[in-house]
Amino acid sequence: MSKRCCFFATPILAILHNLALRYSYAAIYRAKQVDPKPQSCMFKKSNAYFKCIIIATSNYLNTIAGMCMLSGNLICKLFKGVELNFLELVNQRQSVRSYQKRGVDRDKIDRCIEAARMAPSACNSQPWKFVVIDDPELKNKVASSTYGNLVSINRFSVQAPVLVLVISERQKLSARFGSIVKRRQLKMIDIGIAAEHFCLQATEEGLGSCMMGWFSERRVNKLLGIPKSKRVELVISIGYSASDEIRSKTRKPIDEMRSFNKY
Ligand SMILES: Cc1cc2nc3c(=O)[nH]c(=O)nc-3n(C[C@H](O)[C@H](O)[C@H](O)COP(=O)(O)O)c2cc1C
After folding, report:
1. Rounded to two decimals, what is the model's pTM?
2. Which residue among 165, 190, 210 has the greatest number of ligand 1 atoms within 8 angstroms of its CB, and so is best to mutate?
3. CATH of 87-239, one of 3.40.1190.20, 3.40.109.10, 3.30.43.10, 3.40.50.1820
4. If I label 9, which of 84, 161, 210, 232 is the partner at 20 to 30 A Cα–Cα?
């Protein structure tokens, strides 16, 4: 979009600049030709020079705007090769378990939520709710529900400035019916997709994230007053990663997980 703006705005600004230039030269010329009769001379002269100043200022601003647009265009072209494509973004997303103290802008969090909101779901049920916890005291309490004395894998969550609870909500009747008849946990599939949309947008925002399936649901429910009828499916930590390193992914080879036209 911005590139398109640059593309069209640059020649338009150049034309405007040219017109303004011509007009100001004409005004200067007229100013020089001002009738030297005693009564009106001063007024006409100062009026004409005032016009000149206005036009010269607009010229100046036009030129600067034109230069900005041109350099914007150039920068767009220069950085085209650095833009992340989708697979690169996918590769950059990784479970981050060490965070800086820095807080996260709510705007950024909202864009992650927006990405989750746009996720597909069976019968468009959208069976989810995201609860963002960025109050440091409450966040620490929730973080302490993600690990215990025996299993401490999620102790890192205390470092994260923000935790997000992904709660599953009621599906549409049709999706529930489909889940039962086809014995498929469509709701869990929906939640998984939305959670990954969230994490990918977090990566796009320069944030690290980690999904956590290990936590005390009972304690989280109690802390946030979540009714027993609801289920907290995931806790996602987000924040600025303490390290720039992108680890190489440990994944099955492609031949092991894909086949064409047969199992
Ligand atoms: C449903 C789910 C639950 C997970 N639970 C945890 C968890 O409790 N603690 C944790 O440290 N990582 C958890 N992870 C992160 C995985 O360990 C991680 O995604 C996997 O090892 C791949 O590494 P990567 O995310 O860095 O690519 C979970 C991931 C998913 C999708």
Report:
1. 0.74
2. 210
3. 3.40.109.10
4. 84
